[in-house]
Queue: 4 jobs
Job 1
Amino acid sequence: MKRLIFDMAYYGNLTFSDILSSIDPQTMFLVTVFLVSFALLYFSLNRVFKNNSAVAGVVAFSISLFITYGANRSGFDFEGVFYGLGVSSDLAFTIISIVSLVGAVYIGWKWGIGKLFMGLGTLFILIAIFAYEKAATVAIGVILFVIGLLFWLARGRRLRGP
């Protein structure tokens, strides 16, 4: 814990923009593949496992993880696809960022802001495995997860009443 606080103090001028600009297009592509495949699989499997959304979530997560792993290991040339279409990798990165933002808004609207923040916090913590600035990424992930947990608990209290 002391190391985390020291790292945060050392990198005190690190902004959210700096963290996002340190993510390369290939990583953004893989995260998008994971999120899109998870959303589609979860939606489909939730209809198959009608009363058991936990099973649908675990199965969708596992299959999405394998799809993302396969896309990474296959050596898929992300920039080459967009170059062949006449789109630069910078424009593709912007498009993927906008699609990710729209997806996050949809998830926040569909499942609630608390689950969105908890999911983003978990994603940041998982990305910290591969990030160069591990302490800052984990700190942001933990903060987002705690904010999401607070939103989720506050919503539960509101539904139950005082």
Note: The chain has two domains: 22-111, 112-162.
Job 2
Amino acid sequence: MQTQAPTPAVMDVDTAYATVHQRVYSPVFFEKLANDYGIHPQTEQDQMRMLTMASKLRNAHDVRTKQAAQRRNPLEAAERHLDAKLTKMGFAVQRPNAINPNRVKAAAAHASFDPELAAAVLSLQAQANGATVEQLNAALSR
């Protein structure tokens, strides 16, 4: 007879965020640095510095992106014009997909088999929608 693993408890926001960060974001971030740039942090302090710098750069990028989005992009207008002409001439216009859907599906499938990671993500989603830890635990215990 198979026994099911117990349902992990709902986590508070800080614990859920730390779990997702530690189990998903950090490994991907440091793997990317190692594979693409040959950078290998030597200590936990180096890792924290790198994550802090990446966070600062990301925030700066987001601000610039938001500012740029508020301006009209002449390339966007040119692309729309080109697409319209190509469509009129009978060519199929395809939009490039920046996100590889197979990679996303594989990551989601892998994560779904990790009960702690699944609980962390569900906790973050529920709490983002206004549910409290107590409400979530009560719902899971029914």
Note: Residues 13-140 form one domain.
Job 3
Amino acid sequence: MTRPSRTEYDAVVAAALAAIEATRNRPRIRADRSPQGTVAATQAKLAKGEELTEADVAALAAALARMAAAKARGRGRPSGTREDAPLRAVWAAMIAAHGTGLSTYRNGASWHRLTQCDAISKAMVAAGFRTFATYDAVAREMRKFKRSARQISETCAKVTAAWREMEPELRKMESTVRGLVESFAALGPFLKF
């Protein structure tokens, strides 16, 4: 792997900073839209091949952060006990930095400090956040993010497989109901209620 140029790195920092600012200015998720609904809507957009806007990325980051915060919070603690703005910001930055060509983590091949985690931590510091300001903190959260994304894609694959398995039966039921409706419609003149 070749070492990325400084301009590529600075472009990722700028994209992450823009995503962080968009997330910071984004209102909380509406009460009528669950985080799971937001994730599903985003997946539907991606399945159709539509591009995600900055607002979509910010909403997705907020939803994923809210789901992660709820999981970390556990039972019995009120929902407002953890500040989720830094978590929303770092997840938005991760989504913005995805697919940029920079390696995600430092390793033997990328000993330099031009990785996605370094760029995100630099953007978090520039945005004024004290949490997720180091490479290690962002790398830990990146691992959680990837784990969550993998679980979501596995769940979607299972649901899709189950739907495909049930689809022939649903088609049979649909044709049966349609036949019953046609039969009752034909008997309509003879039936008196």
Note: The mean pLDDT is 79.
Job 4
Amino acid sequence: MKMYGSVINICTTHAAVWTGMEAFETAFLELKASYEELELTGNDQLSGTKGITLTKDEKKDLVLKKAVVAASALGVYAASSKNTLLKEQVRTSSYWELGHGSIIVIIQRIENIITLAEAHLPNLGASGF
């Protein structure tokens, strides 16, 4: 979770790089908001609140859907730029593939997508994504 916070800080600091790329900006900002909600939901569960499992599952579902959008944008960019390494790194972009496994594994997959997105922001912008 700390790594994700660092990525958010970097992206916020360098928002000018990706501002204006409507599709990517929307997907990234929605993913960020949903992930923060998931983190808060997890904190609520730790404090013993009842009913969190259902809420957490709903939040996880929302985060996964948004992660698929971000991964798909990276995949399209990778294919159009013939970047086979990036294409391989984001090949697990279906909802089921991202959401399969423990919450720790799912969070790692989402963090990987965010890291890749942050690393390729300038290229995505130049390509119109």
Note: Helices lie at 2-13, 15-18, 22-46, 52-80, 84-89, 95-99, 103-119, 121-127.
